[in-house]
Amino acid sequence: MKRIWLVVVTVCLFGTSLHAATLEEKVVEHRLSNGMTLLMVERHTSPTVSAWIRFRVGSVDERSDERGLAHMLEHMLFKGTKTLGTSDYAAEKPLLDQIEQTAQLMIAEKAKREKGDKARIAELEKQLAKLEADASRYVIKDEFFDLYSKNGGVGYNAFTSRDGTTYLISLPANKLELWAAIESDRMQNAVLREFYSERAVVMEERRRSTDADPESKLWETFVASAFLAHPYGQPTIGWMPEIENLTRTKAERFFHAYYGPQSAIVAIVGDIDTKATIDLVERYFGGIRPGGMPLPVTAEEPRQAGERRIELVAESEPTLVIGFHKPAIAAPDDYVFDVITMILGEGRTSRLYKKLVIEKQIATDVGVFDAPGQRYPNLFVINASPRTPHTLTEVEEAILAELERLKTEPVAERDLQRILNKIEFEDARRMGTNGGLARNLTDYEATTGSWRYMVGYRGKLAAVTTADIQRVARDYFTRENRMVGFITKKGGEDK
Predict the structure, then answer these.
(1) Closest by alpha carbon to 285, among 179, 185, 190, 184?
(2) CA 132 to CA 96: how far, in whole Å?
(3) Measured between alpha carbons, how far is 192 from 67 in angstroms, rounded to an integer?
(4) Which of 224, 346, 445, 472 could form a disulfide with 336 if both were Cys (CB 3.0 to 4.6 A apart)?
(5) Which residue, 356, 228, 367, 395, is CA-closest to 303?
(6) Which pLDDT tens digit goes with each residue over 151-199?
(7) CA 401 to CA 384: how far, in whole Å?
(8) DSSP 86
């Protein structure tokens, strides 16, 4: 099973008492008057910095006519500003306006479906192509990337999830002002040029990564079937008919409303002086006017009243996904689920790997993770692929037997201690990268309300008892709360 944009909480935290104390002492927090949150950690081991900007806006925040906009904006915000990415914005702007007017007319005509004027649509498509070709004469491709690259920047990237959108870069410490100039310009003056050609790129991305990939298609259908009311059920990339109807006007409205300093969490980790960094960020970002925040997601997923089973018939090897609804990150029972995740699926010594892959040899792999987001109640997920000639039914029964075992057989204290030891190892390993720390600071500030979630994490896990594990297993691993998805090979035998 492909794990697309999944944050597996249990393997990317810093939690020993030593690390927690050090982290709490080293993180400097500053809030600008316009709402931007700035988190800094000085590390003078190399003359480099990692700078991450996390916007608290993801696909979960989209409304019905906006599906796919957060992901689309991830693409579009690389296109430049009024001064970057263009050779002459004054000449380009009228063409961009004509492109939008033409595209709106074309979308409106297509929306008439069978009553639409096909000749009119063809003419509008021809006009749009000509206008885009004319506008392309002013486009300077990848100017953001080139500027960063010429100044030693590496890892320039972005990603969108249901919970948020992040832009990241690592660069020499003496180039931090370049980052501030570029990113503050983008926050204020982004131009969504080449919108419709880029929309076609996103549509092709969807065809290739989801529609043509049985495992991704199963995952998308599985999540949509698990969340009938909550927007977590909507794919981050959007459904194809929704992507086809996205417009630059909608994207600009969404961007200007939400992608300002009020929703931005910035983490800068590396060879910096915190006071000088605060002055720099205030100088470049402090004057940006704040927008608003998306309305809170008030929809609550109704409790399932029975098992839901999803089958996909495809030219693919069989695969199995089992999921159970569970609480959001930082809820008391979520910590128990983190322990269960490590017991069942963390590494080759985990229960499911040992039982299914090593001992019974009925599966080729097995994974355990949370999905599809963290801010709201989500899913505890197990996926596995049968080993020929074993069947999906055999694998499913073996997994369910291990879940039943959690309900009835207390987990040994030595196993709980092993989990804590493993966390300490992972903590020490991940504390070594500026980018890893910047990611975690922005991620947990956005999803839990405070980066200090990391500080108390190990203590919360250490407080989990065998009785807690049994209680959570009994409460959540029920038939009524269960989702099962599977791929069966076209023309093959039943499960």
Answers:
(1) 184
(2) 8
(3) 17
(4) 472
(5) 228
(6) 999 999 999 999 999 999 999 999 999 999 999 999 999 999 999 999 9
(7) 14
(8) B
